[in-house]
Design goal:
Elements lengths: L1 H24 L3 H23 L9 H21 L3 H24 L1
Length: about 110
């Protein structure tokens, strides 16, 4: 149960990082807000359609993990692109460990 709560927080943080990257990549201002919102919307839609517990489309486990790798791994890459290299490495380790634990516990249940 605790890992599920952590997984949810990791997912929210990943979305925030992607929006932050979009804002900065867009140069701030209106373009940054639009790119940040677009990145956020794309990640939320992708997650909701394929990776959420009640996803609209059912994928095999490997497909769900691919979507999670794209969104969560993308957030680590975005953090790296923002210039936070050590934080990106730590974030990638947290994301990997949390996802591995969550998937292991879900398979046992």
């Amino acid at each position: 149960m605790a890992n599920e709560a952590l997984a949810f927080l990791v997912e929210l943080a990943a979305l925030a990082i992607l929006a932050w990257w979009g804002y900065r990549a867009g140069g701030g201002g209106v373009a940054g807000v639009l790119l940040g919102a677009g990145c956020l919307a794309f990640a939320v839609a992708l997650w909701g359609l394929f990776a959420a517990p009640k996803a609209r489309f059912s994928l095999p486990p490997a497909g769900v993990l691919a979507v999670k790798a794209l969104v969560l791994g993308g957030s680590a890459a975005a953090l790296y692109a923002l210039g936070h290299h050590a934080a990106a490495g730590a974030w990638a380790a947290v994301v990997t460990a949390n996802t591995a634990a969550a998937e292991t516990f879900r398979r046992r249940a």
